Hints:
The chain is built from ten helices and five strands. The chain is of the alpha+beta class. It folds into two domains: about 160 residues, 2-Layer Sandwich (Beta-Lactamase), CATH 3.30.450; about 60 residues, Orthogonal Bundle (Arc Repressor Mutant, subunit A). The longest helix has 29 residues.
Amino acid sequence: xxxxxxxxxxxxxxxxxxxxxxxxxxxxxxxxxxxxxxxxxxxxxxxxxxxxxxxxxxxxxxxxxxxxxxxxxxxxxxxxxxxxxxxxxxxxxxxxxxxxxxxxxxxxxxxxxxxxxxxxxxxxxxxxxxxxxxxxxxxxxxxxxxxxxxxxxxxxxxxxxxxxxxxxxxxxxxxxxxxxxxxxxxxxxxxxxxxxxxxxxxxxxxxxxxxxxxxxxxxxxxxxxxxxxxxxxxxxxx
Length: 238
């Protein structure tokens, strides 16, 4: 029997999931993937992606709901310009209601976003007090700003995730915090490799490959990064 849950119930569940990071061990990559997936499910957005700062203080992609949003964000990183970069630098929300009218210096971002069919974007900082660790980026197909209620809710989700990552014990130990974030970024690289293996082996899209990887992780209660590493090392076949 199919059970339908309301938007408020779904929002409550993702808040609980994020809050659990304060008391339980958790997989950072899986946590952030759940966050971006929930944003697309809950809010008026077509795609979402999340960037974290790495050892060299540059932003790198950790989680994305589609190859389309991933492409746009990677273009931003390569150009070192765009709303996500601006959001991280200023630790403030950056909302572009019409990508066609974005700043002239964001030419690469604008071209990539329009090519993928995105009309507007909102970038939200992942911050705790004076510490900003990344950005949550929400892409919409139509022109027009994301409504204020969705922005507040998405920012709240990003805030809870940030608190979970920057737990009190890691706030007191800066190196431990940086190591945790770098581990998440390194894990994502392995996951990308594993997606490529599955896509090639089964002749499926990268989105389908990731879905299969994640389904196996959840079904067997094995961290996503561990499954990916075993697959890349040829210790596992999916």
